[in-house]
Specification:
48% of the residues lie in helices and 14% in strands. It is of the alpha/beta class. The chain has a five-stranded parallel sheet, with helices on both faces. The longest helix is centred in the last third of the chain and has 17 residues.
């Protein structure tokens, strides 16, 4: 199964994806890691990244899904095109997928997270609050689950995700 995660920077995607990956024994594919590696190699300047990171992640996801692994795709996924590419990766591998959007409904908490978080990828410049606010981000009309990370801890949010995924797997 492919778990397609999305949400604005600072809502807790990577923290939750890491916890869930450990609990589920899943492979965690983080777009930020892939894109920064491409930039660091001089392949593409950061302002010209386009879909490169997503395409690479989708192909890696397909490979791992074909091997029978559970995969978590951790990305903002701001538009339908990026979400559709993840779904296509699962379809190519003939595996199911779920789409999970993470939000932080408490604007003050979201801003605090964005302004105080520490990066863990060498050379990656995290967006500031204004860039997060200005970012293009379309609602997910066909999302399977929305988790509001302002409503509970990151551990509890991960538990919600893990429980949902286990329920979906059991119903297959």
């Amino acid at each position: 199964m492919l778990i397609i995660l999305g949400g604005l920077p600072g809502v807790g995607k990577t923290s939750i994806a890491r916890l869930a990956a450990q609990e589920l024994g899943a492979i965690h594919l983080r777009i930020d890691t892939i894109e920064q590696a491409v930039i660091d190699c001089g392949v593409v300047p950061s302002d010209e990244m386009g879909p490169v990171g997503y395409v690479a992640a989708n192909r890696i996801a397909t490979d791992n899904l074909r091997l029978g692994h559970l995969v978590i795709g951790d990305a903002v996924n701001p538009i339908e095109l990026s979400r559709a590419a993840w779904r296509e990766a699962a379809i190519i591998a003939d595996k199911p997928f779920v789409q999970i959007e993470l939000i932080c409904s408490d604007v003050d908490e979201h801003r605090y997270r964005v302004e105080t978080r520490k990066g863990d990828i060498a050379n990656l410049k995290l967006p500031d609050w204004q860039k997060v606010c200005d970012r293009e981000y379309h609602p997910w009309p066909d999302v399977d689950l929305v988790i509001d990370t302002a409503a509970q801890s990151l551990c509890d949010s991960s538990d919600i995700l893990v429980g949902f995924v286990r329920e979906k797997i059991a119903s297959i």
